[in-house]
Amino acid sequence: xxxxxxxxxxxxxxxxxxxxxxxxxxxxxxxxxxxxxxxxxxxxxxxxxxxxxxxxxxxxxxxxxxxxxxxxxxxxxxxxxxxxxxxxxxxxxxxxxxxxxxxxxxxxxxxxxxxxxxxxxxxxxxxxxxxxxxxxxxxxxxxxxxxxxxxxxxxxxxxxxxxxxxxxxxxxxxxxxxxxxxxxxxxxxxxxxxxxxxxxxxxxxx
Length: 206
Known about the structure:
The protein has about 210 residues and is α+β, with helices and mostly antiparallel strands. A six-stranded mixed sheet has the order 4-7-9-10-11-12. The protein has a single domain (about 40-195), classed as tt1808, chain A (Alpha-Beta Complex). It is globular and about 55 Å long. It is built from six helices and 14 strands. About 20% of the residues lie in helices and about 30% in strands.
């Protein structure tokens, strides 16, 4: 959820020190910092639903689940981003205080203003993280989940889960987060989410 570009060019260390003094979060890309804006209520609900499910599943397994206030560093020199949800099972991150560098799972909840960036440049950044095994994009306006997973040949493959998908036995579609061995019904991700077509406030005449 990137807002306006700040004009100054600063080093990674300057960014890390400067951002600690700011009232809002900033991402850092190629010497520039970008202010982060708040998301919609469905966006927040989806991230919370997934993070809660992951937290319960991974309790006692040596992994940590983080939400949007946790910063990830692609390297010590950046870029630095704020994923909606991420998981690290790497011992190097267990005692981290400010930045996570070794995630195995990163999740972004899409919004119209950031979807292109999340699919494009941000994914290119994340692919540079050696520990990353899975990158997931969840749409907030309809039931659709895209999981990018790295295969044994080091190539990223897409598995999509959507409302149109069916199961062979007629049961509810399950979403697999293979990097952390977590499987859940797609409805869990969208619990308490009101879609635009279901919201009378969006369609009422003024």
